[in-house]
Amino acid sequence: VEGYPGAEIRGKTYAPALYSKEESETAFVTYNAEKFIRRPGAGPWFLHISYLKPHRPYLAPEPYNRLYHPDDVPDFQRASSPEEEAKQHPYLAYKLERSLNRGYYSASIYPRDERSMRQLRATYYGLITEVDENIGRIVALLKETGQYENTVIVFTSDHGVQLGDHHLVGQGPYFDQTFHVPLIIRAPDGERQQQRGRVVEAFTENVDLLPTSLDIFGADIPIQCDGRSLVSFLVGDTPEKFRTEVHWEVDFRYDGLGIGFDESSLNVIRDEHYKYVYFAAMPDLLFDLKKDPGELHNLAEDPTYRAVVLKYAQKLLSWRMVNDEHTLTHMLVGPKGVVERPRC
What we know:
The chain contains nine helices and eight strands. It has helices at 7-10, 25-37, 82-86, 90-101, 114-144, 176-179, 209-216, 231-234, 306-322, and strands at 153-156, 183-186, 246-251, 265-270, 274-279, 285-288, 331-334, 337-340. The chain has a four-stranded antiparallel beta sheet, covered by helices on one side. The chain has a two-stranded antiparallel ribbon with strand order 1-2. The termini are far apart.
């Protein structure tokens, strides 16, 4: 909305969208989800609801644009300037230059002054609240139609965003803000009562979603699944020998960094203490998260951390070996043909 009162003080993202909250894409998705849930018929069903927001463009309809004040948002975790931040790693330098000067997150679209960035963060929180309220509508409808106690609800996201941390607005190359996503699971009581409201601090990964879903419904988990079932957490227990770190990979072969096409990738291993980032053809990174939770100081070249780098490089290699292709590893060819062997 052009000329919106207060936008000249709080920043351009304070101005609301031209459409109302009833006309937003979030409301549109919810409307169609409700229509599906209300359809006649008593058979089993599956519904995947994908909300675009709070994805860019960071534009919230009223009243969500003014729910949060920029003075109340958390401070930014970043170096003193983009130039100082860029010294951490060549790939980060590339992402910073691109974020500031090109593309959907450029400074011409989202100004980088303190006031504007704080308002952008406040607007983002408003968009999250809009999604939260719409999910509340769906939960209320499930209860109204008598389906809530027979429905598994899983809420998660594909990625986060930096929102000013490390001087980036969109996705970061390896920072926690981009890769630490929510996971909320609500399952009906079965043979064992679910523990409601439990907050689990363990490391989970998106590959856990499939085996967890299969386990909830009592289906066999294929041996090809790399993830672990999280059902034990839902009933108040902890799975045996559960992972103590989390892993992810990023393929950036189309970023045009001037390195080999198939070398443009990074792997991350992160636990409670350290985070190690290995690049196929660029310098690696090590962060001591207990001393540096903001990931501002790379210790990979520090001689006192040489043993730590070696240890985490070996752990990362072991993880890749464990998760190598194993589609046919449980199949045995013998006199009776192809026989499937159970997981030990």
